Every structure is written in structure tokens, then in C-alpha cells.
Amino acid sequence: MEDYADLAIKSISDNQGFQLAQVRFVNIRQENINYRMGLPFQSNRSFSQGVAVRVRANNAWGFAATNLLDKESIISTAKNAWKIALASANVPRGQQVTLAEEPTYKDEYSVRIDKDPFKMDFEEKASIVQDANKLSFSETDLVRDSMASYNARDLNIHFFSSDGSDIKQRILMIGADISAIAVGTEGPQRRAMDMNMTGGWELVEQFDLMKQAELVKRESIELATKAEKCPKDYKGTLILDPWQLGLQIHESTGHPTELDRVLGYEADFAGTSWMTTDKLGNLQYGNELVNITQDATIPGILGHIKYDDEGVLARRVPIVKEGIFVGYQTDREHASLIGQERSTGNSRADNYNDVPIIRMNSMNLDAPTGDEGFKDIDELIADTKDGIYGIRYKSHSIDDKRLNFQFSTQIGYKIEKGEIVKTLKNISYQGITPEFWGSVSGLTREFELHGHPNCGKGAPNMQTGYVTHGGPWTRFENVHMGIA
Ligand SMILES: [Zn+2]
């Protein structure tokens, strides 16, 4: 690989206007095992490999990729990237665009893997998924559909740059999910759990699919047969669990702080952003309890990397500090466009033939420290006179500047006088981003982070993002609920 990367770089590095070349060898092994109502359902295995060459010439990028890993193909790919960079440099951009500086690194890194799923017997893995799937609809006529799956994505990247980086990374992502749909007199209700981290098969054991199967069965039946509807047009206190909080962060903090959206270079799926550069450092995004931090360095989480796909070392980056908006997610070029000295390390490509773009990796609401806040959800509920506690994501809708949103949760509870009094279904709530985050009235010291392997960006060549979000159980005030 090293020799071929050298040859590719040497074939263009003496050209007039050459600034930088990055060569990224990628191979990905994937495996999905799915069961539906006890039967195998669309399981698959795949392997892909290839090399991308990204070239900087006259302050513009060129990109080309191939899955042919012979010498001639790699050199001609480098030359194609070179031609595209020259063509891109001819497009007037109104300003000189340089790259934020980054040291070079020679490193080899792998996430911790105790048990490699690709070295295990297929049947052993399949039977664990099937057993959990069967349990989720056993001994009841009410669960009419149920699915369970496990998936692994073994990403191997070898990154070289013409200025001297040589970085090898293995990022093995493991996920499992289980869902049940129960049908009662008022129609179907779905309950689902999905767990996604980086590591090995030991994570699937830790996820405890049998326990999750019991939970989705019990709660889908409870939702379909006993739960009351969320009160209509109810304005009051809302507590979100870390999983639903994660969606809130993803949609109302994550996407609007992707700097390419802010600057108008990207608008697909999640739109642009109301968090424009004039607001950096002075926007009151939330109240003083709100501290949101990006951190891809946390081991074991989905979105954990040591370096991004332009060789930038991952680090902690504050996004909101005591309620004030203080940071964006950037790559090297966009960081430089707003005068920041370093990239935040968010440049990621889904596969070898994808152009690296700004992607979320891990963005979380910080839990209080010391003896601030509440110990856990029980303490937070005990402190709540009247309100609704919403758990896990069901659906969402948000405008394309990321200001006005409406979300719903799978299940929830009515709280009265500090106690849970009944189970609720069809909980929906609505808010305006800074008002909502400005209404936080309680956080627990206990917190959870959850992986989400399904963020879409980059159309027309859609790329999937693998991210983690979470934080404490969080209480909001004066929230408009019962919209649906
Ligand atoms: Zn997304």
C-alpha cells in the first residue's frame, strides 16, 4: 500500500500548483443477520475495497477513486484527481481558500475488539438473534410483527498524505436491534430498541437481546392495550430520556452546526442553518445548564475515531458552553473559511469512493458534575410536580433552518406529585430550538450515550453517517405537547 501511495503522489507532486495529496485505501466487510417472526429475513454479507486520491492544487480540491488496486490504475486515479483539482481551481470562489494547519502523524489504531465476529461461527450468531426474535412474540397473540437483527461493519482505512502522514485505523461497528408491533383495539403500537457501538461481538452479549426482547414485547402490548393517549394541547413539563435527547441534539444542535450547511455549501436532507457565523460566541442558544460537547475520542461509542479522513486528530470541541453557542463542526477547508486555526476533525467519507464531507461523530449534552443536578431519573421525577416523561424516538419533523421542530416518542409516562401515575402513548411535542433549550430546568448526573447508524448526507451520492448522542435525563418547561 505504502509503495502504491508513494507512486500515486509522485506522479503528480512535481506539477505546477501542487499543494497536497491524500491517498486513502479502504476496505469494508459487512454482515447483517435479520429475523422476522422467527424466520430468516434478508441477511447478507458484503466486502468492498478501493482507493481514493484527493489532490489540492491552486487552492482547490480534486477527487477520484478506483476499486482496481494495481499500480497503473492507482496512478491514473491520481492523475484524474489532479485534473479535477485544476478544473475546480478555475471556478471563481470570491476568496482564496487555504487549509487549516494540522500536524502529520504516523500511527496505527484499532478500536478494542475482544471477540471478532468475523472469526465466529455464523450459526452461533444467527441463533442468538433468532432466539431473541422468537421471544419477542412468544406466548401472546397481540404481537403481530417483530424483527431482530445484528450487524457488523468492519472499516479499515490506511491514509497517506504527501506531507508525511501514514495512519492505519480499524473501526469495527457493532449494532443490534429488536422491535415488536402489538395490535390492540385502537390500532398498532411499535416498540423498538437498538444499540450501536464500536468493538467486538462482546457488545452483542452486553446488549442482552433477550432482555430487550422482553421489554419490546411487554411495552408494545402495554401501549396497544392499556396506555392512555397523551393529553391534547398540554403545556407543561417534559422530561426526555437520553435516547430521545440524542435525537433532539442531532436535529437541533448537530445539523445546524455543520459548517458547510451554515456557509451554504450543503442543503440536502437537513437543510441549511439559522446558526450563522455572526452568532458564534454571542448567541444565547440555551440557558446556563446547557453545555453541549462534540467528542469523538470516547472509546467504544459509535462515531469514535482517532483521526478523520483528512488526517486530523479527533479532539473534544465545545459547541454550546453555559448556554452560549461557541463552536462549529468543520473540516480543514471550512475551518479556514471562518478563520479558525484548526479543523474540529469532522471530515468523514462513508466508503473509498465517497468524498469526505463534514459529519457529526459524537455530540452530547454534558451531565452536571459534583453534587449539582439530580442523581438519576427517580430523583428527577420525584422533584417534578406535574409533567410528561417521554422515552425513545418515534418520528420527527423540523424546518430546514432547524428552528421549529415537532418530535414524538415511542412511550411515556404521566407524572403527578413526583410519581409516575400512568403510561402514555402517542406523545408528541413541539418547540423552537433556543426557547426549548432555554427552558431546561433539571439534569441528572447519570447519563447514557447511544449510537445512531443512520444519518444521511451528501446527496446525490448519499453517504451514511455513524454517530453517537446522549447525555443526562433532561427536564424542559412550558413545552407544548399533544400536537398530533
Ligand atoms: Zn442526520
Structure in words:
With 484 residues, this protein is α+β, with helices and mostly antiparallel strands. The chain folds into two domains: 2-226, 2-Layer Sandwich (PmbA/TldD fold), CATH 3.30.2290.10; 229-481, no CATH class. The chain has ten helices and 22 strands. It has helices at 2-10, 71-89, 122-135, 202-207, 209-225, 242-254, 259-262, 332-337, 377-382, 433-437, and strands at 18-36, 39-40, 44-57, 60-66, 106-110, 143-161, 166-184, 187-198, 228-229, 234-240, 292-295, 316-321, 324-325, 347-348, 357-358, 362-365, 386-398, 404-416, 419-425, 427-432, 440-457, 463-481. The strands form three sheets. Strands 1, 2, 3, 4, 5, 6, 7 and 8 form an eight-stranded mixed β-sheet that branches. Bound molecules: zinc ion. Residues 250, 255, 270, 455 line the site of zinc ion.
Helices, strands, pairings?
Blueprint: H1 2-10, E1 18-36, E2 39-40, E3 44-57, E4 60-66, H2 71-89, E5 106-110, H3 122-135, E6 143-161, E7 166-184, E8 187-198, H4 202-207, H5 209-225, E9 228-229, E10 234-240, H6 242-254, H7 259-262, E11 292-295, E12 316-321, E13 324-325, H8 332-337, E14 347-348, E15 357-358, E16 362-365, H9 377-382, E17 386-398, E18 404-416, E19 419-425, E20 427-432, H10 433-437, E21 440-457, E22 463-481
Parallel strand pairs: 5-7, 9-19, 10-17, 16-22
Antiparallel strand pairs: 1-2, 1-3, 1-6, 3-4, 6-7, 7-8, 10-22, 11-12, 11-16, 12-13, 14-15, 17-18, 18-19, 18-20, 20-22, 21-22
Helix pairs in contact: 1-2, 3-5
The structure holds zinc ion.
Zinc ion is lined by residues 250, 255, 270, 455.
